[in-house]
Amino acid sequence: MELIQRFLPLPSGSFFLFGPRGTGKSTWLHTYAPDAVWVDLLDPETYRTYLSSPERLRQLIDGAPQAERVIIDEVQKVPQLLDVVHQLIEEKRRPIQFILTGSSARKLKRTGVDLLAGRVLLKTLHPFMAAELGPHFELSQALRLGMLPLVLDSDEPEETLKAYVSLYLREEVQAEGLVRNVGNFSRFLETISFSHGAQINLSNIARECHVGRKTAEGFLEILEDLLLGFRIRPFTKRARRQMVQHPKFYYMDAGVFRSIRPKGPLDEPEMIGGTCIEGLVAQHLRAWIAYSNGDCELYFWRTKSGMEVDFILYGEDTFLGVEVKKARSVFPTDIRPLTAFRKDYPEAQVCLLHGGSERLKINGVPCLPCDEFLRLLVPNVQPTEILNTL
């Protein structure tokens, strides 16, 4: 695949760059900072050197007096380097932009991120957005393979996707000793895939995995720390109805979800496909928020009676309810949750995304092809502008 320009804005100061494996952090940085001093902690020799002598970073920088940027790739492998980075930033001997990448926030949660808070920005690189791929984006392919650059750039994308989770289990979970029983964690990954796009019931998940509830909760935190999954909270601001309280869960990429989700004779393809397209929209909305300037957050809306709107974008300049349907046809019953939400929140705009090709408006609700919406979704442009053409 040709080099794809990413939407991630380029900070002028030092920053953490988080992102799951395979999202193209190293490729993006080689393009952004080709002359940077590079410390690759995935290289075994480099890893051993800095693990035993983290102060060597100071010597490396002193030996490159013209360097303006220093990149430490997969910094979570040697968290002690953050003490040295902190000292160098505080000393202000010369202006250096430190770029610290990581595919796991586990080891950095209570150390480096807090230590450098206020001095280093936090940025995240997500899987591709449809608008980044432009003419290369195909909805059917995205639902089958996902949007990870590592997968889409592979000569054998299906095999790469199958090996992706095994890579995490081997190199992150097992090598770092994050769990005592990798088999239990692997079973948890499959079990929670049935909760993709649904509210989480950890007690049921723990029971199916034959582990305690606290263990299942710890597994979920590890999954989020490894940036493989995320939760979104229910929208309850100024609620006029009884609302649910439990969050929903999504894998970070539609292809990763599809590769993990067990399939059997009782699994309907339409059910998997529906949650897959919902997850694809979720990952796009998260990327849009991360790459845009603003304070927008992602929620969902669900009443105790079962009325649900899949996503709520809420921020200073944004208030949008989004319902996602895989079906190619849209019926008035499909927009009932959006109508109910708009009744409770007349300030909000709403829309329905569907698997068809027609732009429709039903009872005042814009209904757009999901493919078109994702292609037009770009950072710092309000999604509502896509709707205003209807």
Proportion in helices = 25-40%
What's the mean pLDDT score? 90
Which class do the helix and strand fractions yield? Answer: alpha/beta
CATH domain fold name of the domain at 15-124: Rossmann fold
| Distinct helical segment count | 17
Low-confidence stretches: none
Major β-sheet annotation: 9 strands, mixed
What does this structure look like?
With 390 residues, the protein is α/β, with parallel strands linked by helices. It has a domain at 15-124: Rossmann fold. 40% of the residues lie in helices and 17% in strands. It has 17 helices and 14 strands. The protein has helices spanning 25-32, 44-52, 56-62, 81-91, 112-115, 130-133, 139-145, 149-152, 157-174, 182-192, 202-209, 213-225, 254-260, 269-291, 336-344, 370-376, 383-387; strands at 15-18, 37-40, 69-73, 97-102, 121-124, 198-199, 229-234, 248-251, 297-302, 308-314, 319-324, 349-354, 360-362, 365-369. The strands form two sheets. Strands 6-8-7-9-10-11-12-14-13 form a nine-stranded mixed beta sheet, with helices on both faces. Helix 7 crosses helix 13. The two termini are 35 Å apart. The mean pLDDT is 90.
Task: Outline the secondary-structure elements.
Blueprint: E1 15-18, H1 25-32, E2 37-40, H2 44-52, H3 56-62, E3 69-73, H4 81-91, E4 97-102, H5 112-115, E5 121-124, H6 130-133, H7 139-145, H8 149-152, H9 157-174, H10 182-192, E6 198-199, H11 202-209, H12 213-225, E7 229-234, E8 248-251, H13 254-260, H14 269-291, E9 297-302, E10 308-314, E11 319-324, H15 336-344, E12 349-354, E13 360-362, E14 365-369, H16 370-376, H17 383-387
Parallel strand pairs: 1-4, 1-5, 2-3, 3-4, 7-9, 11-12, 12-14
Antiparallel strand pairs: 6-8, 7-8, 9-10, 10-11, 13-14
Helix pairs in contact: 7-13, 9-13, 10-11, 11-12, 13-14
